[in-house]
Amino acid sequence: MDKINKLISASGKLTVFFEEPFWVGVFECISDRRLSVCKVTFGAEPKDYEIYDFILKNYYRLRFSPAVATDVKEAGCNPKRIQREVRKQVQNIGIGTKSQLALKLQQEQLKTERKAVSREQREAEKQRQFELKQQKRKEKHRGR
Known about the structure:
The chain has helices spanning 48-58, 79-91, 97-142, and strands spanning 10-19, 22-31, 34-43, 68-69. The protein is 49% helix and 22% strand. Strands 1-2-3-4 form a 4-stranded antiparallel β-sheet. By secondary structure, the chain is an alpha+beta fold. It has 3 helices and 4 strands; from the N terminus they run βββαβαα. Strand 2 (22-31) and strand 3 (34-43) form a beta hairpin.
């Protein structure tokens, strides 16, 4: 029997850019050909050591978006090519369209969660007001 072993690879990338009026970081995590994204607002321009400290302390608390299928390119070994790509990425301002799509999915998911919670709160408040009104009616009826 031939066993086929899948090589599971994961990679991460952090892009920090200025989005009026704050500095924003976008964490991209590619695992098993699926892309998940998380957006973090830093405020003032973060230093390298502050970003590193943030990653060490808060990475496990980040809420990543639902995974989106993506094409994974094999990493090249040529250091000059890597250096050119890094320079090109630094010049490009913003995030990739797949990342934007993943962020939009996360935003929609959080929006539906918020709507459900607010609807429940609104219905609970309505029920409380109704019960209060009923109690007042009973007290009036008893002559108190």
